[in-house]
Each structure stands twice: as C-alpha cells, then as structure tokens.
Write a structure and sequence with these properties.
- Strands 1, 2, 3, 4, 7, 8, 9 and 10 form an 8-stranded antiparallel β-sheet that branches. A 4-stranded mixed β-sheet has the order 6-5-12-11, with no helix packed on it.
- By secondary structure, it is of the alpha+beta class.
- It is built from 3 helices and 12 strands, in the order H-H-E-E-E-E-E-E-E-H-E-E-E-E-E.
- Helices cover 25% and strands 28% of the residues.
C-alpha cells in the first residue's frame, strides 16, 4: 500500500488497523468495479458486432407494408414497448452479396431523403430491369434497385423518389418475430406488385408491370 495513501487514511481514520481494513475493502471494491466495467464494455462490443454483422430485431412503423406487416394492431396496452407493432429480424448478413437477393425480398435501407431514417420496402426490380408505368418505361440504372411498399396507396417509395442506390441497402427482413401468432419466414413475393406475369426481355433482365 502506498505510504502517502496510508498516512492520509491514518490522519483521517486515526488507527493503523482501521487503515489496513479500509484499504483492503477499497481495493476489493475497485477490483470488482473494474471487472464489471470490463465485462460491460466487452458485452457492448460483442452486441454491437453482432448487430452490425449478423442482424437485429426491429419494429415496423406505419402501414406501407400492409398486409404483409402491421396488418392489425396487437396488444394496444403495450404500445409504450412498441409491442402493438410487428417486429422483424433485420438480417444484415444476408446483404453481403447481391446474388443472395431476389425480386420480392423485403429490404432495409437508408432513406434517399433522410440518411437518419431506415426504410423497409419490397425489392421489385434490379438494375437493367424495365419498369412499365402509366407515364412510360423506366430502366433501372446500374447500381440501383426499384422498391415499393405493399400498400401502394400509403407508401413513399421508388414511385416518388426513383431507383435506390445499392449502397444504401444494408439488410433484408427475413422473419416476422412478433407477435408470436405471426411467426414466419418471409418469402420473396411480387403478388401485390405486378399486374401481369414478369416477362424476361434479355440477359436475365425483366419487364415489370408496376402498380400505380
């Protein structure tokens, strides 16, 4: 024990035995505190790595993905925990390579309008695909995708801000994990987004007949 610290404690406490006891107690408290801090920091680092590399659960706000997500409200008395909403697993690992994506997947990306806002929509078309809309044809440019909400009348998506850069897409929603009665794996689907069959035009590119 440091002699300076010992002298200071002795002046305050006035007894050698009490000084030794206080010092031992202080060392134990400091040791335990450092262990707790170290464990907490390690846990945060592990959790942060898992979230950034593998994925994490997330609640879905709004009605743009109805009827697939948030079709009905659940447990309204637990809205302060956001348990009145659907929760999905945001699979970051699945977004490592674009060959793992399919038309009809539900993707998560940074909003082209607000980089602080995360958006969830359905992937409708890849680069090179042609979107046929009432105002004419639009070819999805290289390095972009076309996304739309399932509830087209209540969705701000590519119909409003155009194709989304691939660099903004960081995950896809792979499972519904809340509420329990809706647990399921989310399957790729374009059922609510095409008026006719998708027609291949060349080299794997497709013409998509998009809703209004």
């Amino acid at each position: 024990m440091s002699q300076a610290v010992k002298r200071g404690l002795k002046l305050i406490l006035g007894a050698d035995a009490l000084v030794e006891s206080t010092w031992r107690t202080t060392r134990r408290v400091v040791r335990v505190s450092l262990n707790v801090i170290g464990f907490s920091v390690s846990s945060v680092c592990v959790a942060n790595t898992f979230f950034n590399v593998v994925g994490y659960p997330a609640s879905i706000s709004g009605g743009s993905m109805r009827p697939c997500l948030n079709h009905t409200s659940h447990y309204p008395t637990l809205d302060w925990l956001r348990l009145n909403l659907d929760w999905v697993f945001v699979n970051v690992w699945s977004a490592r390579h674009w060959n793992q994506f399919e038309r009809g997947d539900i993707v998560v990306f940074l909003s082209p309008k607000d980089p602080n806002d995360f958006v969830i929509k359905r992937l409708i078309a890849f680069e090179g695909d042609v979107i046929l809309r009432p105002e004419g044809e639009l070819e999805v440019p290289k390095g972009h995708i076309w996304v739309e909400g399932d509830n087209s009348r209540n969705s701000i998506d590519s119909k409003h801000y155009g194709p989304v850069p691939l660099g903004l897409v960081f995950a896809k929603a792979t499972h519904v994990i809340w509420p329990p009665q809706n647990w399921k794996k989310i399957q790729p689907s374009l059922e609510n987004h095409v008026d006719k069959d998708i027609r291949e035009i060349d080299s794997g590119h497709c013409m998509i007949i998009s809703h209004l």
